[in-house]
From TrEMBL:
Record's protein name: DUF2530 domain-containing protein
Presence of keyword Membrane: yes
Chain segments carrying region Disordered: 1-38
Pfam families: DUF2530
Transmembrane parts of this sequence: 48-70, 76-95
InterPro entries registered for this protein in UniProt: DUF2530
Keywords, sorted A to Z: Membrane, Transmembrane, Transmembrane helix
This protein's record includes keyword Transmembrane: yes
């Protein structure tokens, strides 16, 4: 015969699960404190997009010079680096589009875009 003496047992069918909320000083009603916001230099994606896109473009130019000048024939690498650079430019365009939309109407946009 099973008993419900185990502390971590599952509730029976039809029982309401009990929620445990930490309480203490400064936490009225068991509300958790808000986490601190990120510093602006960590929340801004522009440097990451710029550095990543630049590295892809630099790799593309390096492989293009190696192919034309030295006969290094790895077309998959060449096209992969070009796609990386193009996708970086597209990603930056989407980011600017979202930021412009947030500036126009902040009620319907994402929060935390560093306006």
């Amino acid at each position: 015969m099973l008993t419900r003496s185990c502390a971590g047992s599952l509730p029976d069918v039809g029982e309401e699960p009990q929620t445990v909320r930490p309480s203490g000083p400064g936490r009225p009603g068991g509300a958790l404190p808000r986490p601190p916001s990120l510093p602006p230099r960590l929340a801004d994606p522009v440097p990451v997009l710029a550095v990543g896109t630049t590295l892809w473009l630099l790799a593309f130019v390096t492989l293009l010079v190696a192919r034309v000048g030295f006969g290094f024939d790895r077309p998959v690498w060449l096209w992969t680096t070009l796609c990386g650079a193009v996708l970086g430019v597209i990603g930056y365009g989407i980011f600017r589009w979202q930021r412009a939309a947030a500036r126009r109407d902040p009620r319907n946009s994402q929060r935390g875009l560093g306006l």
